[in-house]
Automatic annotation (TrEMBL):
Belongs to the zinc-containing alcohol dehydrogenase family. Keywords: Metal-binding, Oxidoreductase, Zinc. It comes from the Bacteria. This is Putative L-idonate 5-dehydrogenase. One of its GO terms (molecular function) is zinc ion binding. InterPro entries: ADH-like_C (IPR013149), ADH-like_N (IPR013154), ADH_Zn_CS (IPR002328), ER (IPR020843), GroES-like_sf (IPR011032), NAD(P)-bd_dom_sf (IPR036291).
Length: 360
């Protein structure tokens, strides 16, 4: 059996590394870059796995994700895990070879949040996030063989949780934050509309938090199959004549499609709660919203997460199985093909994983 240190790839002085870099709309390349050196308070990671997210696809297809537009090349990826390869000066409590994942968010500046949102660091007005073009210079992501990371963003993986699962702690944290927007799901009936990777993880998170019955709806049979494997009690195939259920007390809208809002609001019980998880367009779009008022529905948003990545790791340790979410695996060198599969509704893909190290 290999020791933890033997799992880490050898590092030659000033050696190059490979990274998945988007240069503009439709232009993603596997570039060679200099391997970084950890500075004081930093950790050098030898990365092993990365999960492709919708924002990675958006940067590749459009050169932008939401309002964040590329002005220069960007290393993609914020769902990553690997092993510690080296420690910078002053780093304690971490060991070379330890398998870890990363909390990809880092608030910028020292300004305190208003009391009404104290502690909700996901709502900080300025946050650097792995693989994001929101700032110039951009914040490179982790789809690379190595990356330096501030030590306080490192999250060690629990015993028994491998780095492929560990790379999914970030999107699982997004799902846990979403279900946490409703104080207590125990015993309650829940509907999840939209069963892409985040929606299917919301199914799993709702089940983990004690929901009584979890219903899942989508237009794609392949996505519904994943949702069922992630814990849905009942599925609704909206292309096969199924309809959304009526009078559901708690609904999670994870498709982000404005056209879905009317039916989803109608499905929400009078006085019920609708949690918006899917990102809605930043531009005007038609949507039928009348039931929001006449049914007195509480409609709340959910954005990224605070520290739920720690709970995600505990859930993985305790047996929450995210492997049904993984439908495809590609080596780093085939990153463009992996992005194309993840972006293609006809591919049957859910979470597409990049193997960032040959031996992972």
């Amino acid at each position: 059996m290999k020791t933890a240190e033997e799992h880490v790839r050898p590092i030659a002085p000033a050696s190059p590394m490979k990274a998945v870099v988007v240069h503009g709309a439709g232009d993603v390349r596997v570039d060679e870059r200099d391997r970084p050196v950890p500075g004081p308070g930093e950790v050098l990671l030898a990365l092993e796995w990365g999960g492709i997210c919708g924002s990675d696809i958006a940067y590749w297809k459009k050169g932008a994700s939401g309002t964040a537009a590329l002005t220069h090349p960007l290393v993609l990826g914020h769902e990553v895990a690997g092993r510690i390869a080296a420690l910078g000066a002053g780093v304690t409590g971490l060991d070379v070879g330890r398998p870890v994942t990363v909390h990809p968010a880092r608030p910028v500046g020292d300004g305190a949040l208003p009391e009404r949102i104290a502690g909700r660091t996901n709502l900080h007005p300025r946050v650097r996030y792995f693989g994001s073009a929101a700032f110039d210079p951009h914040t490179d992501g982790g789809f690379s063989e190595y990356r330096t990371v501030p030590a306080d963003q490192i999250r060690p993986l629990p015993q028994g949780v491998g780095t492929e699962q560990g790379a999914l702690a970030e999107p699982l944290a997004v799902a846990l934050h979403a279900v946490g927007r409703v104080p207590d799901l125990r015993g309650r009936t829940v509907l999840v509309n939209g069963c892409g990777p985040i929606g299917s993880l919301v199914v799993a998170a709702a089940r983990y938090r004690g929901a009584g019955t979890v219903l899942a709806a989508d237009l794609a049979p392949a996505s519904l199959k994943v949702a069922r494997a992630m814990g849905a009690d009942e599925i609704r195939d909206l292309t096969a004549g199924d309809t959304l259920p009526e009078d559901v007390e708690v609904v999670f809208e994870a498709s982000g499609a404005p056209a879905a809002l009317g039916p989803v609001l109608r499905s929400t019980a009078r006085g019920g709660t609708l949690v918006q998880v899917g990102n809605l367009p930043g531009t005007a779009a038609p949507a039928a919203l009348g039931d929001l008022v006449t049914r007195e529905i509480t409609w709340i948003g959910s954005y990224r997460f605070v520290d739920e990545i720690d709970e995600a790791l505990r859930a993985l340790r305790d047996g929450l199985d995210v492997t049904p979410l993984i439908t495809h695996r590609f080596p780093l060198e085939r990153a463009e093909e992996a992005l194309a599969v993840a972006a293609d509704p006809g591919s049957g893909s859910s979470k597409v994983m990049l193997r960032l190290a040959a031996g992972a």
